[in-house]
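In this section we walk through a basic example: taking a raw amino acid sequence and producing a predicted 3D structure, encoded as discrete structure tokens. The instruction is simple. Fold the sequence below.
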Amino acid sequence: MQASKITDQELVRQFLDGRESAFEKLLLRHKSQVFTKIYIMVKDEDLANDIFQDTFIKVLQTLKGGKYNEEGKFLPWVMRIAHNLVIDHFRKGKKMPAVRSDENNDVFASIQHDGDTIEDQLCWEQILNDVKDLLEFLPEDQRRVVYQRHYCDMSFKEIAESNDISINTALGRMRYALINLRKLVEQRNLVLTLS
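The resulting token sequence is shown next.
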């Protein structure tokens, strides 16, 4: 079978069976795409090379550790590792304070976004993903109010009407949602600020 016809998954299997050259083929096949993605994010060739090497070291370690289970999705998996390493790099460069947990502090108000730089944009994207993930832990009625208010930009009057509840009930659900989100942020030691 010609190398260009062999799927990524087959190359992964060959590598796991002891054929070191299969990993080299994977690396050569995806080198350009992965490096380009990293370079676009960091805009620095030396840094892009470092993160590229770290990406494939992590890929290699994961494969050798028997932890790879992304059948048929090798390139998206590698791209996700690269993306996460870029975010980690920029987060390490910034000392970001944790969110305060006082009663008057709105978890959404604490999220500062002035993403003028690529670093800020990447961190902002990660913050939004962290918040979206946290929403999954809220009760459905609270999650719906938060989603409608912060992702659909609805007023509390519109939220009340769309859910057939009073404005006070909508406000109460938001209040409890924010309390619960603050607890989740603390439990998971998340950072939801850029500076």
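Looking at the output, two observations stand out. Helices lie at 8-16, 20-42, 45-64, 74-93, 118-135, 140-150, 156-163, 167-187. Residues 185 and 191 are 8 Å apart (CA to CA). In the next section we compare this with other chains.
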